[in-house]
Amino acid sequence: xxALLSVRDxxxxxxxxxxxxxxxxxxxxxxxxxxxxxxxxxxxxxxxxVALALLRLIASPGRIVSGEILFDGRDLTALSEEAxxxxxxxxxxxxxxxxxxxxxxxxxxxxxxxxxVRLHLGGTKAxxxxxxxxxxxxxxxxxxxxxxxxYPHNLSGGMRQRxxxxxxxxxxxxxxxxxxxxxxxxVTIQAQVLELIRELKERLHMAMLLITHDLGVVAESAERxxxxxxxxxxxxxxxxxxxxxxxxxxxxxLIKVSRWESSGGGEMPEIPGTVPSPVELPPGCSFxxxxxxxxxxxxxxxxxxxDLADGRSSACFLAKADRP
Length: 324
Fold this sequence. Notes:
By secondary structure, the chain is an alpha/beta fold. It has helices at residues 47-54, 81-87, 99-102, 109-121, 125-138, 144-147, 157-168, 187-204, 215-221, 239-244, 249-263; strands at 3-14, 21-32, 36-40, 63-71, 74-75, 92-95, 175-179, 207-212, 224-229, 232-238, 306-307, 313-314.
């Protein structure tokens, strides 16, 4: 199946007083039509920056400094601002982690969804509101005819997130980017929203980029996963195979935490330390100061991304033994 999205050697840079900093470094991945790829990592790993880069929403003075973002055969990095606005919302839509930040508090839910429809598909205001009601019904918002007249603050967190999903689906996008779509919700509502997203993805034949720190969500929602650390890809592979045998110590740590959270028993495993600031990356492998398997070479040299069996890859010197 041909790739709908191919990201090739993407690097994103932000100026600082200490000099330019690469928040994303030479990142590559692809998503086939109808598939779900998960982008995983702790806060500060660069995954949300990737989402903004795909839609050309990196706030100035940050910028994409190199690489290609090929979507349906077009390089989004080379499009004019007018052309990229046509892609946003219509072909690629995004669900943000905090709907209160993304929804306009002074406009009704119906007006905001209708405006997204009219912007890309045209039609009258009345037709846009009618479509908004249909979409709210699709995402299981109760009494959608009444909800279209309400404002974001009138809705619960779960209902706001459903309204955000409805807005994202307004133009039947080919790719849905979901950036931590359940972070602000309680556990019960999280499960409902994730199940809704999975169901709608299958019904509408969309591809999805799921950005999360939760490997439990990945296990239920994605076919492939890219693990990021300090702006770089450190492992990629099929979800089932990666859970069975991770090839990078960071992935191994994330999986142990995820399994503890799902079992709820025993002493909680942890990955010591925190993701380093991109301004102060350690020499060699960025994960080496936190790694139980670190060797002297890890502090001197950045490991390349080794191609392994079954279409997997890992940026760890220990993975060399698993190469075909």
